[in-house]
Amino acid sequence: MIAPIALITFAALAAALGPRLLRRSSWPNRSPRLGILAWQALSVSILAAAVLAGVALAVPTLPVTANLAELLSACGAALRAEYTTPGGAGLSLAGAMLAVCLVVRTGYCLVAGVVSSGRLRRRQRAALALIARRDERLDALVVDHPVVAAYCLPGRHRRVVLTTAALGALDDAQLAAVIAHERAHLREGHHLVLAATAALQRAFPRMRAFRDAHVEATRLVEMLADDLAARSSDRLTIATALVRLAEASTPAAALGAGGSTSLARVRRLVAPAHPLGAARSALTVLAIAAVVALPVALVTVPAAVAATSGLCPIDFSSTVTY
Predict the structure, then answer these.
(1) Cα separation of 202 and 216, whole Å?
(2) How large a percentage of the chain has pLDDT more than 90?
(3) Cα–Cα separations (whole angstroms), residue 310 to 69, 77, 78, 152, 153
(4) Tell me, what DSSP letter sits at residue 140?
(5) How far from 63 is each of 1, 2, 58, CA to CA, in Å?
(6) Does 132 score more than 90 pLDDT?
(7) What distance in Å separates the CA atoms of residue 300 and residue 158, rounded to the nearest whole number?
């Protein structure tokens, strides 16, 4: 019973404290890529802990019998003893159902979100084929529209889209910075990051940790795209372009340079913080890996105890031939 309790406790603490610690930390803004990874790791660890808690509860009822391999037959009793719960078969069945429901719910929301986004992008591409013209110099589609807007459509047929109002509002340097920003989104596959966080948010709408993860991932992918654009454009130029795109709207299933995060990103571009050093980045990666690995470690401890208790003998000599 120790493993399920430990996993549920870990999931509850991670869901309650993890978002708070990440939001209060400044390092995600200094290293958006690691920040995105941290929010993803937190979400994965919470979900994994809940699923593995159900699996741990179900272990005592798994059909480990003498009809299986000799090793499983020898270890079956020891494994059941380590994972046995006071609730008996009823609690084990509930654990199995919990694990299956969590996995199915998450998978369904992920697939449904990807399908829905793909459908929206196909409709937008069909509309753009009718109303947009291709600008070979910019390698982008241009739409006659009085509202300043710039966005990209990810997917197999990816496109950068600009309005004529954006062409008039931005000078050449600002335009190049905006296009570099949008291409960074496409190159890095940021739509996949947001699809994963959005799926968890839809699957478990009452879980604040998953809502926070989606909001923060949306903000951090924009910061990361700004940083990647800054490799070829001046940061002040990018900031100026963001000011002019601040009120731009972005179609559904697209990624845009403007939007609600513009003001914070402008401040960050104008007064950038020092990036994380190699040592701090390495420690952060190790901490992120530990967060993901901990649920797996908690669920395997009873199995490790069974394997080392002497109740689970392994005789390799009988399997070796000379």
Answers:
(1) 16
(2) 62
(3) 18, 12, 9, 60, 59
(4) E
(5) 19, 21, 10
(6) yes
(7) 43
